[in-house]
Amino acid sequence: MDNIMWKHIYEQTDTLKELLYNEQIIEFSKIVPIHQLEKLVFVAFGSSYNCAFATKRLFEELTGIETVVYTPFDFIGENPLHRFNASHTLVVGISQTGTSSGTAQSLKLAKEEGFSVLSITERRRTPVAEIGDYYLNFLSGEEPCNAKTKGFSHSLVLLMLIAIHFAKVKGTINDDQFSIYMKEIDESIEDIPHT
User: Fold this and answer.
1) pTM for this model (two decimals)
2) What is the mean pLDDT of residues 7-17?
3) CA neighbor of 62 nearest in space, from 86, 30, 37
């Protein structure tokens, strides 16, 4: 019997290539006020939290946008929003299934306090996805197993793509540097089967 996890691992190369060259991030970069952003606030749990935390430094170094990462428990309990300027902050909720009640609660709180929200999920018609002013999809496809292989890699690549697209729009990297980052991500994806 084939192991379903290996199936998802081997599918990653094709699905990540689709994500890499998908137009959704380009379109998103055209409508979000990137030049006004001074702070990114990620709210996520589990592997989504780990991806957000792993890309925090990339966002800060490439875009100059201060980036903070919270679990829903800490975000709701601390409610840090009173320290942030709503017109210069984007709150980003990440949930592969789109059903994380804590993430949904956090995003609702952000909306109630006047903050713009980006929802990132794999499934469009979900509580987390419906709250966002903006929406991006993991494009990893269904993954009906506990260990989210494609979900993790897609979340990580999607966040890296957002960072480099934001940096390109802000002018903190030029077209050549953008191409180098895209090529590096592409080569890393190609290397997955060998790894």
Assistant:
1) 0.93
2) 83
3) 37
